[in-house]
Amino acid sequence: MTNAPAHETSAIPRVGGGGGNRHAAPTAGPAQAWTAEAGTLVVEVRDVNKHFGSVPALSNLTMLVPQGRITVLLGPNGAGKTTAIRVITGALEPDKGGRVRTFGYDPAAFGEFVRRQCGVVSAKPALYDRLSGWDNMQYSAELYGLGRNASAKIRDAAGRFGILEALDQRVGGYSTGMKTRLALARSVLHDPQLLLFDEPTSGLDPESSRAVLDLIREMTSEGRTVVMCTHLLIEAEGLADQIIVLEAGTDLLHGSQRELIDRYWPNQLVWIEAEDPAQLDLVQGLPGVLSVSRTQRLGSHDGAGPRPTCEVAVDDVARVPDIIEALVAKGVRLTKVDPHQPTLEELYFAVRNERREQFAEDEARRAPAVASGHDDEGEVA
Amino acid sequence: MAAPTAHLGSPEPDRFNWSRMWVVARTDLKSLIESRDFWVPMALLGSFFFVMVPAFLLVVINGLGNVDAVQQVSQALTLLPQQAQAAVPAAADPSAKVQYVLAVYLFAPIAVVVPLTISSAIGASTIVGERERGTGEFLAHCPADTREIYLGKLLASLIPGYFTTAVGFGIYSLIVNLVVGPNVGGWFFPTASWWLLIVWVLPPFLAISLSLVLRLSAKVKSTAAAQQATGLVTLPLIIIAYGQSTGALATGGLTVSVIIGAVAWVIALVSLATGVRSVRRGQLLGVADM
Questions:
Q1: Residue contact B7–A35, C-beta within 8 A
Q2: pLDDT tens for residues A2-16?
Q3: Structural domain count, chain A
C-alpha cells in the first residue's frame, strides 16, 4: 500500500497567469487577468493555517482546484471543510504565511472581485425568513451588482431549481427542501465561475438530491468549477473529478477516485466464497495470486449473517478464470466469485483507519520518550 | 443561463460602494416592516411618549384651571433660568404658563428617549442576529465590504428611530398647539430650540449610540446579551442627551444647542470612523476570527 502525499503525486495544473511555483514569492494577484482555460487552477491553497484562538482549524492545508471540475471535500465534522471554503472566498483570513489564490488573486486584497465570481451555498441555507423568496433573490442580485432589474435572471435561476412558483411566499413558510433549492438558485443567480457548496443536499429528499447533483454536473459541463463538501460518500462517488480527504484541517490525500483506489489497492481484488470456507486456503500459491486474506462479508440481499470470504489480490484480472478452474479441479465447491472494485467508502475508511493506527503508533512511541525525559529527537527536554 | 465568461478581467482594488450600503439598509428595513412583533411595540412606545403622556397632562391642567396646586407649580417656574422665564408669555394665566413650560421644556427628553430606545433595540440585534439566523454566512461570502454592511445596518437602525421621532414630533406639535395654543395667544410650537434639537442635536446622539451598539452587536454571542449590554451603553448616553437637551432648551440659547450639536457631531464622526472598522467577516460567521 502506498501513501504518498496527494499533492506530490497528482499533476499540478498551472495557475492562471501567475505561475504555480510552490515557493514563489507571494503576490496579491497574477501578472495578467485570469482566463478560464482547461487545466487552469481556479483555487490554489498552499500550506495554509487557520487558528480560532488556540484551536487549529486548518493545518498546512494544500488544495488545488482545477477549472471546470468537481472537487469534493470529504472528512468528518471539524475536519476543516467549511473553513476551507471560507478561506477560498476571503470570508475568513488565514493565519500569516501560506498562500491563497482564487482566480489567481489573493481574496484578502481583492475580496470583492473574488466573491463576485463565487456562488456559495452554506450548510444552513442562510435565507431571510421574514422576506419572500423573491426578496431574498433580489437582495442577492443587488449585492452582486445585477441591479434592481434582474427579474429575468431571478426567474431563470428559480425555475432551474423548481422554486419559481414559491417565490412570492415568505421563506419562513418554506420546507427545508424548498429553502435549499432557493439557496442553490440564489448561488447561481450572478453566473459565478466558482460554486462552493457545503452539504448542498442536506435535508433534501432523494429525488431533489439527484436533481441537485445533476445540476452540479450540468454546471461543470458549462465550464464552471465546483467545490463541494459532503459527508455522503455515495454522493461523492461518481460525481467527483477530484476528491480531497481532510482531517484535522489537513489534506490526508487527494486525487481522482481511480487514482486514490489504485494507490491504496494497486492490485485487482477478487472475493471468493465456498461451501467449506476452510478449502479456500487452497487458493494460496496458485499462479497470479499475490496475497490472500480472510474477511467476513455481510450478504447483500439474502439477509444472512456475515460470511467468511477470501479476499484474493491477483496480478491480472484475466487470471481469475484459471484460478477458478484450479480450485474446482481441487474439489472446492465455490458459491461466489466477485471481482471487487473498492468503493469510495472503503477507501475513506481505509485512509481513516490507517491514520488512526499511525496516530496510535506515534503516541505509543512518544509516551516512553516523554516518560524518560527525552523528546523525539533524543534531546533532553 | 448564460455561458460563463471566459475572461474575468482585472480587478480593481475594493472600493466603498454607496448603493450596496443602501441595499443592505433597505433590505433590513423591509425585514423590520415585515416583523409586526417588533414594530407594534415600538409604535406603542412612540405614541406613549409623544401622544398619551403629553396629551393627558396638558388636557388635565386645562381642565383643572387655576386651582391652588397649579398656581403653586406656576410660582415654582421662577426657579427656571432667566431666558426660559422670559420666553413664557407674561400675559397668560398661571395654568397656561405651566402648560407652556411643560410643553416646551419638560417634555424635551421624550424626543431623545424614544429614538435612542428604538434604534438601540434594533441595532443591538442587527449583527448578532445575522449570525444567529445563519444569514451572516451569506453576507460574509457576498461582495459587499464590511464597511458597507456596517453602515447599511447603522442606517437601518437609525431610520426607524428617527422616523418615529419625526412623526411623533409632528403629532406632539399638533397636540401642544391645539391644547395650549388657545391659552397663550396662538400656535407657538415648535420653537427654534426644538427645531435645533430635532435636526441638529438628536442625529449625532443617535449616531454615537448606534456606533457603540453595533460594535457590541458584532462582539457578543447572543441577541439577549446584546440587548443587555446595549442598555448599559445607551443609558448613560440617554442621560447625557436628556440633560444637554433640557439644559439647552431651558437656557433658551440657540448658541448652546448649536455648540452641543457640533460637539456631538464631532464625537459621532470619530465614533463612526472607528466603528466602521470594528466589524469583520468572521464576526458575521460567528467564529473568533482573531
A1: yes
A2: 333 334 334 434 444
A3: 2
